[in-house]
Amino acid sequence: QLVESGGGQVQTGGTLRLSCATTGFDFDDYAIGWFRQAPGKEREGVSSITPRNGNTYYRDSVKGRFTISSDKNENKVYLQMDALKPEDTAIYYCAALSAIFFDSDSWATYDGWFRFGYRGQGTQVTVSS
């Protein structure tokens, strides 16, 4: 099970920190990804992490603004979002995929989402101009 929290409404340039609490699987053996879906747009991968080795991945539009991290003691993954822009407005979801199936080249695509077997319900992020 995955439960997201930390969404909200901020102004352009603001900051939010999303949390993803995970239960029911071995945290170290999975890749955890953050995805988002804006109204009228396809769901897209934002950032992902493989906690065992700490490798992180970001889509180009959030590089330098978002930071993903994990806490193995708490089995949580965080997404620190700085310098937020209106185009970051979306529902943000976390999802988990066994690390052996994780593909760093395709995880962030529309189809990549469907490979993640565990998914949260999402948290709304709204950035106003």
Number of strands: 11
Class computed from helices, strands and strand pairing: mainly beta
Overall pLDDT, averaged? 95
Rg measurement, Å: 13 Å
Which residues sit in consecutive blocks of at least 5 with pLDDT less than 50? none
Described by strand count, sense and barrel closure, the largest sheet is: 7 strands, mixed
First-last Cα distance? 34 Å
Shape by Cα distribution: globular
**Structure annotation, total helices:** 0
| Beta content | over 45%
SSE series = EEEEEEEEEEE
Tell me roughly what share of residues is in helical segments: under 10%
What key phrases describe this protein's structure?
129 residues, mainly beta, 7-stranded mixed β-sheet, 4-stranded antiparallel β-sheet, 11 strands, 49% strand
If you had to describe this structure to a student in words, what would you say it looks like?
The chain has strands at residues 2-5, 8-11, 16-22, 30-37, 44-50, 55-58, 66-71, 76-81, 90-98, 118-119, 123-128. With 129 residues, the protein is an all-beta fold. Strands 2, 4, 5, 6, 9, 10 and 11 form a 7-stranded mixed β-sheet that branches. It starts with a strand and ends with a strand.
